[in-house]
# Entry
Amino acid sequence: MTFPSKATHQQTRAHNAALVLRALYDFGPISRADVARLSGLTRTTVGDVVGVLIDDGLAREIGRGPSTGGKAPILLELIDGARHVIALDLGEFVFRAALMDLRGQVQRTIERPVTGVSGDEAVDVVHELIDELATGSRETLLGIGVGTPGIVDAATGTIRSAVNLNWQDLPLADILRARHGVPVQVANDSRAAALAIELFSGRRSTNLVAVKVGRGIGAGVLLGGELFHGDGFGAGEIGHVVVDDDGAECRCGRFGCLETVASSRAILLRTTEAANEQPDSPLGRRLAASGELTLDDVQVALDAGDETTRRIVVAAGRFLGRMLAGVIGVLDVERIVLHGSVAELGDVWLDAVRDEAHRRALRLLAGDVVIERAAPIGDLVLLGASAVVLTAELGLSVGR
Amino acid sequence: MTFPSKATHQQTRAHNAALVLRALYDFGPISRADVARLSGLTRTTVGDVVGVLIDDGLAREIGRGPSTGGKAPILLELIDGARHVIALDLGEFVFRAALMDLRGQVQRTIERPVTGVSGDEAVDVVHELIDELATGSRETLLGIGVGTPGIVDAATGTIRSAVNLNWQDLPLADILRARHGVPVQVANDSRAAALAIELFSGRRSTNLVAVKVGRGIGAGVLLGGELFHGDGFGAGEIGHVVVDDDGAECRCGRFGCLETVASSRAILLRTTEAANEQPDSPLGRRLAASGELTLDDVQVALDAGDETTRRIVVAAGRFLGRMLAGVIGVLDVERIVLHGSVAELGDVWLDAVRDEAHRRALRLLAGDVVIERAAPIGDLVLLGASAVVLTAELGLSVGR
DNA sequence: TGCCTTTGTCAAGTATCTGGACGAACTCCC
DNA sequence: GGGAGTTCGTCCAGATACTTGACAAAGGCA
# Structure
């Protein structure tokens, strides 16, 4: 029963200002006249907005560009270091934090192991990380972005539940804002990563699904250039959809979730089984040597052409592809990007995903879908955490 | 590489005007002051907009309401018959057309069988239907809305392909607009139906998936109060996602699509098989008598407690539920509405759908999801075709 | 009856986009 | 080298639409 909100002049201005900023961001160096052509705004308006951006230190003139038959244009560029963002990735075993500029260029990274840490103690670790990075860049600090597993109410910045940290309904954004005095954005890690791909991979898609396949499986759904959260902030939580009728128990309590068959855990479980059955195989010897298999071991076995490993990896990929076929059917997105540790496994896995997704989705739609690995632009969760801040504060991924 | 478009004063005005109109639509009779409170607009702005609405004949004052301690408010209401819409449902066997008012109240309905009709001939039938309904209501005609199966480019009103009518890349909106001189909207039938449920069922959901389960299966995806089309206008085309590994051939050419196991065709195919195997069963006798089974026969057998029929219907429902679990995982919508001939089968089917969807979706998400049959508000495709026009012309389902 | 509240409108003010005009700066061609 | 034409950036007047404050009309309450 919520009623849509009214439109105001400020919103109009904010939208158009974001448009100009984005033109500089994506197409700079660029002249005012070109920004006007690109955005449809008048030169007058663009000039006005640019004036504000220059006053704010966000943009600068860098001299004349080539003439096209008239007065040479004054080229403008965004000042990448004009603002900074502190981005955090609250991983399962380690909290990582980075100080980044407007382009997602990392200035400094620090991290703390958090095994055994939980509750208020974990919040204190977050504070420490921020304090350490904030020293010396308080003036330019645009905001703090947090990427974390679990269900996150992005509107209020409340973490609904993060099992391993024993956080429940923690208003992390409020807590951090109160202590550090800058805007704070909190987002689910997979969703943040999706925004990072949109903002930093040099290629804009209005609609995009980015699937993180690691120990867990989660997707970020970007529709119309904006993150889609769903009614309960659970959009993209595909890891716990049941896909295997006689599957194993999942950490969520049910059986046969996608995670139990397609995550890194699933692959390692199965390769370990195989290694135990065949102690003389390469994987068997690797297991005996180290006591535990890792995805690197799987990669090595895969590269060596081990058939059992290949079958396991392909099976995992096919399960994911099956899920993606459903995603394509429901959303008809033109681009699905895969990332996370499992996505690093290479073409054996990727081809399995693609093949299964294409075989199962309506040809008319699937023909256009690009399923690809994320470009190696860095830690996507960290980048995403900063992308969320950039989007919220500067409107760097405006839709429409 | 398309750049978002600029914001203007006119858009601001249009948005706010739509807000006022919607307040009248959803909450009327209502005073200007209450509209202001509801929308957040100032009384001044609301008064201004209402003035225009009254001038346009869209609203009227209907006297004073009860005072709450001050001057009694002047109540306003929408004039339901102020405008009319011609809605068309281009069904597989019959084209149906209706003249409706702003509330979706049907003034007149006509139809033409179109078996064997295709190409330009079919377009002529559309023209005829419109001409017949338009006589006498030219002045109040707001627009024409068309609901049709197949892939439709809703932005341009072009039908990409409608197999049975032999239409390919037909710019139907342009054709109808040229001939009849009013705005035309064309939409996929399932998507149109979703908008009808949103607009006419008396209950607003920002996010909603409406699945039409009949001879075909398709969904309309409503996100943020607006229809989501997908990059290739194929969002919601879940009927041709492969769900059955050793399934039968589908009319789309592949094997095991959702339609081959969950549509009315699938149910009738299976019950007919069963009837042939057991000629003495109720269904067997029914088949022998009429030569062909219908969903009504299935309904009768179901009501009579026939176990074979029940199993077939439940199996069909479970396949759909499985797909819905995926939808819930991807979108986390709070409400999924089912309609179409199969959805009329009753609780045996609905319970199977619900049970399977809930069992397979993440508990946290699935717990909140309501899966329900559409309220019996009329022909959803016709209503939807008109809803698309009302949305486009009056902004009756504004988001944000 | 007098005071308070609420409604609807008016007038002045403000923010922001629009469109025309103009000087500055550059190219091209004679 | 100079004039014509083009393009850029800005200025200014004008238009649009929201905001704010004020006020009369209309009602309740004591």
